[in-house]
Write a structure and sequence with these properties.
By secondary structure, the protein is an alpha/beta fold. It is about 40% helix and about 20% strand. It is built from 11 helices and 12 strands. The longest helix is centred in the last third of the chain and has 16 residues.
Length: about 290
C-alpha cells in the first residue's frame, strides 16, 4: 500500500457519516493522527438523514474527499452505493470504510479486523468458543462472520426482529456451511451456555440496560468461570457494569474502535498508525466529554 503523503500535495479530507454523529470520538482520534504524521488534512463529522445518504456520499466524492467512515445506521446502505467492494466486505454485506480512488467509490469493512484483534488482545480465542450475539444489524453481521471464520463451536444470534437474524444466519452459512449458527428469542438466552456474549447493538450508549430488555441478568460467577461479556459500545454500559459486578470478565468497544480506525487510516493513507496514541486520545476525549 502506497503512502499517500508521497503522492499528493493536496490537503487530505476525511470524515465520518452517520446519524447521530455528535457523540463520535473518531474525529478527535483521526485528527490527532494527521497531526502526528504531519499530514495536511482534516477529519470531519457529517450527520445526514437516511434519504440523503446516497447524495451525501456522491457529494463527498465530487468534493475530492479521500475517504470516510460509515457508522450507524448506514453500514448496510453503503454496500449498495459502492462501485467496488473488497471480497470480505461482499460476504459480510456491511461497509464501514469508503475510499474514493480512481473515480470509484470503494467499500471496505474494518470492523471485522477490529473485533477479531480486540478479542485476541483480551486473551480470548474465538476458535472452539460458544458465542452469543445480541443484535441483528450490520455490526452483528460482521461479528457473526468473524466467529464463523474462526471456527467458533456455536454461534447464537438473539434479536427482537427474527427475520433479520435469520438473514444473517443464511448469508454466513452460505460461506461457512459447517458453521453452527442458530437464531433464538432474545428473552430465552441462557448465559451459562456461552463463553463470549457480545452486545452488537447501540443500546447502552444512553444508559439503556440491555438485561432489562432481555428480562434477566447473568447469575453471580461464584465458580469464577472464564466468561467474557463484550460490548461494541466504547463506554462502560449497564451491560458491562452488571456483568462485572456479577464477577465476569468484561471488555468495552474502545480497542475495537482503535483497531478498525487504524485499518481505515491505512486504507486511506497507506500508513498503519500508532494504536496506543489512538487509545490515549479516545480516553482523553471521553474524559473531556465526561462520558
Amino acid at each position: 500500500m502506497v503512502d499517500i503523503r508521497r503522492k499528493t500535495d493536496w490537503k487530505i479530507y476525511l470524515g465520518i457519516i452517520g446519524n447521530p454523529v455528535s457523540h463520535s470520538i473518531s474525529p478527535a482520534m483521526h485528527n490527532k493522527l494527521l497531526k502526528k504524521y504531519k499530514i495536511d488534512g482534516v477529519y470531519l463529522p457529517f450527520e445526514v438523514e437516511r434519504e440523503n445518504f446516497p447524495d451525501a456520499i456522491k457529494g463527498l466524492k465530487a468534493l475530492k474527499f479521500r475517504g470516510v467512515n460509515i457508522t450507524l445506521p448506514f453500514k448496510e446502505d453503503a454496500v449498495k452505493i459502492c462501485d467496488w467492494l473488497e471480497e470480505m466486505t461482499k460476504i459480510i454485506g456491511s461497509v464501514n470504510t469508503i475510499l474514493f480512488e480512481d473515480e470509484k467509490i470503494k467499500g471496505f469493512n474494518t470492523d471485522a479486523f477490529g473485533f477479531e484483534k480486540s478479542i485476541e488482545k483480551k486473551g480470548y480465542n474465538l476458535s472452539s468458543s460458544s458465542v452469543a450475539i445480541l443484535g441483528g444489524g450490520g455490526t452483528a453481521r460482521t461479528i457473526c462472520f468473524v466467529c464463523a471464520k474462526n471456527n467458533a463451536s456455536k454461534i447464537s444470534i438473539f434479536n427482537r426482529t427474527k427475520e433479520k437474524a435469520e438473514k444473517i444466519k443464511s448469508d454466513i452459512k452460505n460461506i461457512f456451511p459447517k458453521s453452527n449458527i442458530s437464531v433464538e428469542e432474545i428473552g430465552k438466552i441462557n448465559f451459562d451456555e456461552f463463553d463470549i456474549i457480545v452486545n452488537a447493538t447501540s443500546l447502552g450508549w444512553k444508559g439503556e440496560n440491555l438485561f432489562e430488555i432481555i428480562g434477566h441478568a447473568p447469575k453471580p460467577n461464584k465458580e469464577k468461570i472464564n466468561k467474557l461479556f463484550y460490548d461494541t459500545v466504547y463506554i462502560q454500559t449497564p451491560f458491562l457494569k452488571i456483568a462485572s459486578k456479577m464477577g465476569y470478565d468484561t471488555e468495552d468497544g474502545k480497542w475495537m474502535l482503535v483497531l478498525q480506525g487504524a485499518k481505515s487510516f491505512q486504507i486511506w493513507l497507506g500508513l498503519y498508525p500508532d494504536e496506543k496514541l489512538m487509545l490515549k486520545t479516545i480516553k482523553e476525549e471521553l474524559a473531556n466529554k465526561k462520558i
